[in-house]
Amino acid sequence: MDPAHERPYVGALSPVTTDIREASMRLKGLATIVSFTGALLIATATPAQRSDSSQGSGGGTAAAAAGCTDPSSGATAGCVPETFSTFDIPFDRLPGGRLNANGELDPTSSPEDAHKGAFVAAKRLGLFRNFEWVHWIPTVPSVKDPATGKWSGGDLDGFPTGWGSTGLGIAGDCLYWGRSNSTNTTGPGVTRDVKIFRIQPDPEKDPPVEVGTMPQLTTDGGRTAVRDRELRPYNYTSTDGRERMLLVRSAATGTGGDIIVYTIDPETCLPVGEGSVAKGVLAHEFYLWHDPKNPNRFLVISQTYSAQDEDLVITAITDEKTGEVLKEPLFIASFTLEDIGGPIRNERPDETGLFSNGRYNDYSHLTDAWGRPGASMASQPNNMHSGSMSDDGERFYVAGSNTGFYILNTEKIAQHTNAELISGKVCNQRSTNVWVDGKIGGLVDVRKLPEVANDCVHPALNSDPGVLAMLKSDELSDVEKLVRYTRLETRSRFTYTPPLVSMVGVHSAVPVPNRPSRSRNNPKGRPAYVVLTEEWPFGPCPERGLRILNIESEITPMMIGAHAMSDSMLENCLEQPKPPGATIRPMMHAHNPTVLENLVFVGWLGHGVRAIDISNPFNPIEVGHARPVPWGDIMTYPDIHNGLIYVGDNHTGLHVLKYTGPRADEVPKDVVYSSNRTSPHPSGRTRSAKN
After folding, report:
1. Which fold has domain 137-143+149-432+490-690?
2. Fewer CB within a 10 Å sphere, N or C end of the chain?
3. Is the pTM of this model over 0.85?
């Protein structure tokens, strides 16, 4: 632990900060959520109530209320309700640059004072509630100007190293942290290697220790990759009893990047030899799936987000007989929504602004505090952005940007071997083109639609027994079938765009674990709920939030809950001030969520990490916030290792947090947990203790 801070961030806010927050909430009319045993109510709290609640889990009121947040506790006698509200960051006071020991902007302060001052400022501004800021590990050094004595360009300065997602991954006690290298801030030729750390035996006391690096990849011309946008390590035991570790890396110069797979030495955390490149795949994001029936089998499910024609590509990266990383990853199957009659890509509106599925809100006549116009849509990309595989591998939950959220049937992928799938005898490895004469965007040939169910990957809609029976019926005309199917297909994709304006739309889709459907038409008890986040990088106002859907009917998803920051309200977003010392406009949308049974930890970019209680999915409640300073963008999935939460910030480096709020006992211990790969998996504590 850093000696400069005394770990005060269990929730205590100064009276001044509390007053600022109260004034802000009254102005913006934000409601406060009150949690009672067995019930969740929305109420407007008085200032006195809010002042009591500001003591968090460290105050007497909060301590008494802790039992009230869990209906199963039965502790109703003398129970005092704890109040929660969405924390509204004071951006006009949030430092965006290097600090001195007093927590004030000072580009000449020493590294020691800059580090100490961040904790001072965070405490003064109330930037942590129900979280402890355990460690801050800056990984990009600053450069001092000998003439002026000013420092710049490093994590202690809050220097932005690019806007794109950055990779963070943990396996065993090995941690990998890849930085963005965006040319819009660092310029071409700047390299930032992947940092490799070992998490220590007492991770609360001692920060992770750097043990090596992986060189930043460059293009043929020597221009650096924009970013190591995805890093997914995994440790496992193959059927021969050997302990193994692998790492999947996606490094991109644009929207998509190569998938590269490395064998990792679990004792050193370092790669063994060069990586294997998956040919024909340009991933924007990907999910790493470990077959529960065969510990040797790993698949990478890549979402391309317009980097290539296919929306999704599945690749085998290990030998399913031995568990060794393949020298040449194998193509298993792909999926393209456009081919099977879904929305066409890059759709443009007519002269009035009307798209085939509606009209977007247009705020382009308005400007924010930075002089930027409000949001509008000139085209609708309709690309798959990301998604999550079910543990059994039989479903893939799609974050389809403007096409919305929908569910893919991947049963054939899960139930057959790689060899069987590659033979082409089990299913169609590529999506069936259902358009008349194959001309995408023309007319759909309804007689081809039943064949989609034979694709290795296809929407759950297309293999629904009722839908198949309708399409094969002799009692309906082709026109009647097409009308019914079109209505069902549109309804099977939940989307809010249009009318809500967002270039990316649905960014992430993560099912809620251990909350199975109890519906009769969902006999396998698949997840009942899914958490969605929304994105528009550096997007114009308004900002985007988080939604919860009921997916018990897999072909009829429905939104039941939502959570957002105050700048999701257009007027608040337009007036959002610039953080003092910040060099670029903040990004404020929800990004990557790690989802537990009753809690969600969201990397909410400029809003930091937010803890959301979803025990009642109809009424999500913010129960904690963590906003390190200087100001930055937390873009990674929050990775959980032995109860601590690790996040990466594009401006300030690596941060280790501890959640101390309601349901803190539900944060996984003794394992690694993340929502971008099969979880949980072993944390490697025993091996770390030996070293």
Report:
1. Methylamine Dehydrogenase; Chain H (2.130.10)
2. C
3. yes
